[in-house]
Design a protein that fits this description.
Layout (H helix, E strand, L loop, with lengths): L1 H8 L3 H17 L4 H16 L1 H22 L3 H24 L2 H22 L3 H4 L1 H15 L5 H41 L3 H7 L5 H16 L3 H29 L3 H13 L3 H16 L1 H10 L1
């Protein structure tokens, strides 16, 4: 079904805009994960039809969304939401089309996420305090579900949540944009270049400069008591988790591992979040210097 929608979206900017707006509204009202579909549809338009028709599609989508919102009495909110949801993935899709480099596309999204964290800490007096309202809502929901927050670890987690929520929010936005871009690329590959995404993803490596910067941020966050560095490190680990997952997929393909094994690995990783996220992120960082995929090639030749 989704592949059929993708095929319809690339028929023209109007068709793509209609689908992108529709799935975004459904994500806001019915099923939040549909935001990935909305982002992916918009990214696919930019990948396949180019920036000119991409801009037309965004303009049409904003017009449709604004009219629909105006009928409900809040014209500005949906437009702001659409821009905030689509801007990162559109930027990444534009770079991917221009450079044909998944590395650069994802790194541009990472740079945007890191810049967002820095801007928050430059503008806000106390970013951690600004998240306390949401943290208190989580605490109230937890107490309503369990009767009380009597678990010491849960209570400690809630008390510290505000200190890393800025980084978590930026990392989440990057993850949504990255998954949307990969989905759009998968649709494009199925229609015009079968197997293209697999090759690109298996070769995902951000490079020495990005790896060095990432390692310095993570190391500094580990040794220095700085909320800014901690939040930047969260984003870095999530960004490099994609390279870590690329390593796992590439090694699985080279070693002929059954797809069900990868499914099991993903399930295991989800169960152990956030620890697993740190491990996969560190694996991605380590791959910058170790290059696990090349080492497997050498072992297979031997």
């Amino acid at each position: 079904m989704w592949q059929a929608l993708a095929g319809y979206a690339v028929r023209g900017p109007a068709q793509g805009a209609l689908l992108a707006v529709g799935t975004l509204l459904l994500s806001l009202r019915v099923f939040p994960p549909l935001v990935v579909i909305s982002n992916a549809l918009m990214a696919l338009i930019w990948l396949r039809l180019g920036p000119k028709k991409g801009l037309i599609s965004v303009a049409i989508a904003l017009a449709i969304g604004t009219v629909m919102a105006g009928m409900s009495g809040s014209p500005a909110i949906p437009a702001a939401m659409m821009v905030s949801f689509w801007l990162p993935v559109v930027m990444m899709a534009y770079l991917l089309r221009r450079t044909v480099s998944l590395n650069l596309a994802l790194l541009s999204g990472a740079a945007l996420a890191l810049a967002g964290v820095v801007i928050v800490y430059l503008v806000a007096d106390d970013p951690a305090q600004s998240w306390q309202g949401m943290v208190q809502q989580i605490r109230a929901q937890t107490e309503a579900a369990t009767g009380s927050v009597n678990n010491a670890k849960v209570d400690e987690w809630l008390s510290k949540a505000g200190t890393w929520m800025t980084g978590f929010s930026a990392a989440t936005q990057f993850t949504v944009a990255a998954l949307s871009l990969l989905l759009a690329r998968a649709w494009q590959a199925r229609m015009f270049n079968p197997g293209g995404l697999q090759k690109e993803f298996h070769e995902l490596r951000y490079g020495l400069a990005a790896g060095t910067i990432g390692l310095l941020i993570v190391a500094a966050a580990a040794f220095l008591e700085s909320q800014l560095l901690t939040n930047l490190a969260i984003v870095v680990l999530v960004v490099f988790a994609f390279q870590g997952l690329s390593v796992l997929h590439a090694l699985a393909a080279k070693l002929g591992v059954h797809a069900l094994v990868l499914v099991g690995i993903y399930a295991f990783l989800l169960i152990l979040v956030p620890t697993s996220l740190k491990v996969i992120g560190i694996l991605g960082l380590a791959d910058t210097w170790v290059d696990f995929r090349s080492r497997i090639n050498v072992l297979k030749r031997d």
